Amino acid sequence: MHGKISSPSSALFIILRPRPILGLMWLINCQELTLVEVGSVLNVQYAILSHTWEAGEEVQFDEFRNQTATTKRGWDKIRRLCRLAIDEGYQFAWCDTCCINKTSSSELSEAINSMFHWYATAVRFYDASWRAIGTKATLSEALSNITGIARNVLFVAKDRDLDDVLGQVSVAARMSWAAKRETTRVEDLAYCLLGIFGVNLPLLYGEGERAFIRLQEEIVKTNNDLSLFAWRSANSPLEPYRGVFAQRPGDFQNSGGIILANSIIYNSEFTMSNKGVKIEMNLSYSNKRSLHVLFLNCHNEVERQANLGIFLIHQGASIFARAQPQFPSIARSLDKVYRRAFIISNIQGEGSRNWSTGDVGPKALWDSGQRMFITAGLDNFVGYYQYQFYSGESKTDPGGFYVFFGYGYGLEPWLRAVALEKNYPLLYAVEIGDMRLLAQEVQKIEPQDNIAAEYGVAVELVYGAKNGEPVFVVDCQWHRY
Ligand SMILES: *[C@@H]1O[C@H](CO)[C@@H](O)[C@H](O)[C@H]1NC(C)=O
Ligand SMILES: *[C@@H]1O[C@H](CO)[C@@H](O)[C@H](O)[C@H]1NC(C)=O
Ligand SMILES: *[C@@H]1O[C@H](CO)[C@@H](O)[C@H](O)[C@H]1NC(C)=O
Ligand SMILES: *[C@@H]1O[C@H](CO)[C@@H](O)[C@H](O)[C@H]1NC(C)=O
Ligand SMILES: *[C@@H]1O[C@H](CO)[C@@H](O)[C@H](O)[C@H]1NC(C)=O
């Protein structure tokens, strides 16, 4: 008996995965120390050098061709590269400083579009004095720790295709690899990701952050992964609305642990249209925030039961904008979005008018309208709020104190009132924004060393409720007067 062959009812999608074209390439002939143009590099084996640039000391393409740079320090680097290449049995070598004719924009563009694949098969690491320190295989753990890139991606087994391995990693996690990267030109932040997403872009130096938007548009064309939208704005002050795309790779800095909930072939398709990204999906609705929620079919590896989404606000017709872009929506259950919020009360009682708000942090989580930090979804949280005091008499006004509060890092919810300017370790932790260090330093302060008492104020962390949801309240009561 023959079973019925199921066929797609409406549309069939044929996946396109463009690969970089490996065309003309300049290589160093290691024996003769000359540049040669090689027609097809598919069958040519060559050594490739990735290195730190030394300003003014690198050998440029033209200088190599006319052999006028032999006194530069960069020349020695090339000589050593060639010697090493010959020792390892290679006739040719490639180095980005001198093997790209940068006056040819098409050649530069092709080189940058292909570079990821050129480097992908390299293995070896050398220290500053050219001693071998290991291969990518032996160093994969350390490299993974430093870059945040999974080991199976850094070291792809011989029988596996790099593009297939990359395809298993969420787009959001791949973006996070560049979140802390610094490049001389802002466009390179986008261009360095081309190979990781298997897309090509014409290079337009001068377009600035627009390059990163173009990269995302290009990813939409070839990649059905909704986690592309799982970024969080780290901008300050916060914008109420944003477009669907991230502004820079840094917006993905917390996305390294995002994994796909199931295969992206089950996602609704989405496309670039002249109104923005077009997607046909049913939205959820958050009554608490009066915002729509678009779920992204992905979650954090530490909280697998919680689906990630983004908040959307209706702008009329069928158009939506991203709202509250500092959050991914955590949809363990939508009515728990306020879980673990910290509400900061004004100082109650007589004399309260002499107090005002000073510094607040982390700003990305602070909702000034509701006077609260919304921490839903974070496993660890440290916040601070500065109460400033004006006596109207002293020249050194304003006095006052900071309250620090938080949970996580293995600690029960806690609160301390501190004179920050007298506590240098704490000041340092705030300045560098290291929340774990902040939690550690604050714990060294005994609760009884409560600086707020000097101002006649009692500060406590108490349990409260807002809209029926449990919250913490930083409660301040004026006592002295
Ligand atoms: C060699 O090339 C460099 C860079 O283009 C140029 O400045 C220099 O004048 C050239 N020297 C000779 C001798 O051609
Ligand atoms: C480098 O590129 C420029 C601009 O396309 C071209 O005029 C020049 O001939 C190229 N140099 C070589 C050695 O091919
Ligand atoms: C990588 O990080 C893990 C976890 O922090 C640590 O246990 C390990 O020693 C690190 N490995 C290297 C080579 O740095
Ligand atoms: C959206 O919801 C409607 C009504 O519940 C349902 O019929 C439809 O299949 C849903 N569409 C998608 C894309 O899930
Ligand atoms: C509060 O400030 C006013 C001046 O603005 C001052 O006269 C008053 O003494 C202050 N109160 C206290 C308790 O310091």
Automatic annotation (TrEMBL):
The entry's keywords: Signal
Superkingdom classification of source: Eukaryota
Keyword Transcription regulation: no
Positions of the DUF8212 domain: 210-240
InterPro entries registered for this protein in UniProt: DUF8212, HET
Record-annotated Heterokaryon incompatibility domain positions: 46-126
Signal peptide range: 1-23
Entry keyword rRNA-binding: no
Protein name: Heterokaryon incompatibility domain-containing protein
Organism, scientific name: Xylaria bambusicola
